[in-house]
Design goal:
This protein has 83 residues and is an alpha+beta fold. Helices cover 13% and strands 30% of the residues. Strands 1-2-3-4 form a four-stranded antiparallel β-sheet.
C-alpha cells in the first residue's frame, strides 16, 4: 500500500490512515494490530520515501521519545544468524 502511495503532505497521508499520529512534517506514528504495536516512520514526501525508524509494542513506545528516536540496527538484528 505504501509503495503505491502518492502523498504530497501529511494531510493526504492522514486521509488514508485516519489513526496515524502526525508527530512532525516528516515523522508519523502508525498503530498496528489494534494499537498493540506502534510503528514510527520518517516520510520524505517529495521523494516518495518511507523510512522505518522504530517498531515495538505500545508499552515500549511509552518509554521512547518519538520525536528523537532513530533506527537502531542492533535492536532489529536477526538473532538466528548469531554464531
Amino acid at each position: 500500500m505504501v509503495s503505491r502511495a502518492e502523498w504530497k503532505n501529511t494531510a493526504e497521508l492522514k486521509e488514508q490512515f485516519h489513526s496515524a499520529s502526525i508527530v512532525s512534517s516528516q515523522r508519523v506514528v502508525f498503530n498496528i494490530k489494534g494499537n498493540e504495536f506502534r510503528l514510527v516512520v520518517a516520510v520524505d514526501y517529495s521523494h516518495r520515501l518511507v523510512l522505518i525508524l522504530w517498531l515495538g509494542t505500545h508499552k515500549e513506545y511509552d518509554r521512547i521519545d518519538v520525536k528523537h528516536v532513530h533506527f537502531d540496527k542492533e535492536r532489529y538484528a536477526d538473532s538466528s544468524n548469531s554464531n
